[in-house]
Design goal:
Number of helices: 4
Radius of gyration: 23 Å
Number of strands: 3
Distance between the termini: 41 Å
Helix content: 40-55%
Structural class: alpha+beta
Strand content: 15-25%
Strand order of the largest sheet: 1-2-3
Oligomer: single chain
Amino acid sequence: MRTVGLFEAKQKLSELVDRAQEGERIGITRRGKLAALLTSAPPEINLKGVFEEIEGIRKRAKLPRGVKVKQLVEEGRI
């Protein structure tokens, strides 16, 4: 992990963000002590895809007649 002082970080913020976006972790120090960590953002989650996957699992599940997924979740069974 590379560290830079706060003053330098302010001067080179755009460059540091680009480097963090590429996967580098950059520590920012204030008066010689680590104050912040600049890292890449987590990938965006495609919620539509997540719900479609859950729906597919639900459709493939063989539940007894009258049993609802919500009921199983509330009981802590799934």
